[in-house]
Design brief:
Blueprint: H1 9-44, H2 52-76, H3 78-97, H4 102-130, H5 134-165, H6 170-173, H7 175-189, H8 204-222, H9 224-227, H10 232-254, H11 268-298, H12 303-321, H13 324-332, H14 334-352, H15 361-388, H16 396-431, H17 436-465, H18 470-480
Length: about 475
Amino acid sequence: MQANHPTDTRSRWLALIVLCFGVLMIVLDTTIVNVALPSIRADLGFSEISLVWVVNAYMLTFGGFLLLGGRLGDIFGQRRLFLLGIAFFTLASLSCGIANSQAQLIWARALQGLGGAVVSAVALSLIMNLFTGQAERAKAMGVYGFVCAGGGSLGVLLGGVLTSSLSWHWIFLVNLPIGIAVYLLCVSLLPHQVTEAKPQRLDIAGAVTITSSMMLAVYAIVNGNEAGWISMQTMGMFALAIMLFIGFIVVQMRVSTPLMPLSLFRHRNVSVANVVAVLWAAALFAWFFMSALYLQFVLGYDALKVGLAFLPANLVMALLSLGFSARLVMRFGIRYSLVAGLALAALGLLWFARVPLQGNFLVDILPAMVLLGLGGGVAFNPLLLAAMNDVAPEDSGLASGVVNTAFMMGGAVGLAVLASLAALVSQRLLAVDTALPVALLQGYRLAFLLGAVSAGIGAVLVLLLMRESASDSARHAAVMH
C-alpha cells in the first residue's frame, strides 16, 4: 500500500477535504428529504404509505450495494470507482430534481443510493490509504466522522430552507454544482495509484440475492395494509424474500470471495453489534420520518420550521462525535457507552410517544430532540468499535462495511414496519369518524413507542451479551480520538 508522496502533505489534506465534500453530499441525502416529504406527497400525489419509498428506495440500494462497492474498488481501483460513483450520484440527483411522477422519483432515488454506496464504500478506503501514519490517520478520521455526523444537521436545515424558499426539487438539484466540483477537484488531487488493484471475483449472486430479498420484504410490508397481511400477494412476497435470503446464505458459504463472509459472525461482538445496528437504525429512521410528519401535519410547521426543529438533535450528535464519545469509551468501555447511548435515545423516543395534539416546542419537542442527539452521538462510535473490536486488523474495513449495511437495511425495514403500523392505526380511527389530526397523532405515537422499545431492546442485548476487553476498548478509543 502506498500513499501520495509523503512530503506532499498539503495535497493529501486538500484531497481529504474534497473526499469529505463528496461524502457530505451522500449524507445530506439521507436527511434532507425528510423535511420535504409533505411537499413531495402533495405535489406528486403519494399516499402516506407509498411515501415511505422515497426514503426506502435510497436506503435499500445504498445498503444492498455498500459491500459490493468496496469490493469493486479493490478490483478496478478506488480512485476510478469514486469518480464513477460521484458522476452516477450527480446524474441521479438531476433525475430526482426534474421528476414529475412517483415512479421517476422512486427509481431515481434508487439510482442515487447505488451511486452513494460506491462513494461511501470507496471514500473511507481512500482516506485510510492516503493517511498511513497513525497520528495523521486519526486526525483525518476525526474530520470524516464529523462530516458524517454534522451532515445530518445541515441536511434538515438545508432541506427546510430550499423547500420553503424554492421547491422540493431543489433539495436534489443542489447536488449538481457540488458533484461537478468534487469530480473535477478529485481528478487533479487524487493520486492515480493509491492502492494496488487486487484481482478478485465479484460476488454478483450475493449482491443480487440480498438486495432482492430486502426489497421484496419491504415492499410486502409497505403494501401490507392495502393488499391484506394474509393475502396471497403479501404472503407470496414474504416467502420469496425468505427463499432469496436463504439463497444468499448458501452463496456466501460456497463462493471463494463472499460479499459478507459468514466467519465474521463467529465473533460474538460482531453478531451483537449487527443485531443492535438493525434495532437502532429502525428506531432512528422511524424518528426522522415520523417526527417530520408530526411537525407538519399535526402542529402545522412549514418546511423551514421543521428543519430548525431538528437542528438541536443533529448539532448535539455532531458535537459529541468530535471526541467526547471516544473519551467516554476510554473511560467506561464500549459496552457501557453503547448502552448509555441507546438508553438516552429510547428516552427521547418515549418523550415523543407522549406528544400532545397542541404540542409546545420547548416542552414537548426540544427535550426529546436533545435526548436523541445525545443518544446518537454517544452510540455511534462504540457501535462501530464493537463491530470491529474482535476481528483481525485486515478485516476491520469489512466488519465496518457489514455493520453499515445492517444499519441501512435495519433502517429500511424498520421504517417500513413502523410507518405501516402507524398508517393502520390512523386508517382505523378515520373509519370511525375521528378527526384527521387526532388519527394521525395516534399512529405517530405508536411508531415512536415501538421505536423506543427497539432502542431499549438493543441496550439490553448489549448489556447482557456483549463482551469487552478493557485494553482493547482503550486502545481503539485512543485511535479514534
